[in-house]
Specification:
With 326 residues, this protein is mainly alpha-helical. The protein has 2 domains: 3-190, no CATH class; 194-312, no CATH class. It has helices spanning 3-41, 45-48, 53-87, 95-124, 129-158, 167-190, 193-223, 275-278, and strands at 253-256, 261-267, 290-291, 297-298, 306-312. The strands form 2 sheets. A 3-stranded antiparallel β-sheet has the order 1-2-5, with helices on one face. Strands 3-4 form a two-stranded antiparallel sheet.
Amino acid sequence: MSDQINKNLPRDVFLYLLSIITLVASTISFGVLVFQYINIYFPDIIYDYYVSASSYFSPIRQSLATLIVIFPVYFFVLRFLAKDVDENPEKRDLKIRKWLLYFTVFVAALVIIGDLVALINTYLNGELTTRFILKVLTIFFIAGSVFSYYFSELRELRTKGKKSLNWISVYKWVVVAVVILAVGFGFYVAGSPANQRMIRFDERRVNDLSALQNQIINYWQKKNELPQNLSQMANDILGIVIPGDPKTGTPYEYRVLGNLKFELCATFENSNLDQKAAGPKTALREQLIYPYSGGEMQTWQHNAERTCFNRTIDPDLFKVEISKPL
């Protein structure tokens, strides 16, 4: 073994370890990404009834971030190691390289076996057959991509470096193209960062209106009348602060419509009625629910415009608090 190879051995060991870590992170992120696409376009009423759009988009964004950063690192580390072996053929038979290649296959196998166990468990609990089959095919694609490459590397050890599998190079670029397409499709499904920011503003507006609604009901329960304006509910001692629009700071609109009826209004930037804009194309969307008279579920659904929500307090459901004499 040459002195140059001995000198670079620590570097090579850490590069192989880096390739293992980035491989595992990339395969898991790619699997999560494709699984979310399957969940979105093949919804299951059993599992998705209370699932919101944000519960789909959050893992998609996390997987996109991981793949955008880690997958290129894995790809270039792999190319560097392959080029280094081509330039230094004696490295091909190093024991440490063999150990690390086998260890890579071992770790990848554990991850894939774990995913398959989790998938089968979900299927046995009643998951939609179509979703299960598509997810299994995804796992098979990941397993085939990983094992075909590393088994070809191990096969070269037995054939003394003879490269008879030229299709591996082609397949490697096919895998890269598939990952790039999956990442690009993720931006289409989850939306651009600017669109996500508008959605987050709208979610904040809904949360503010929901909090105001609760404060109005609490005010009515204590005083047996609705407040004439929102500032009437502000209370430093109780820590009640009246929120405004998170983007513009404009106060939310409030009007009394009757003894038990009131209206809250806000201007939204997106529609959560439009499935493409506010949620998966075919999956069920979250509804922010609060009980009212008639047993109906009133929601915070809105268009990309000024939207008002009429509420009627049910006195049988929300009792007026009667103050007791001291």
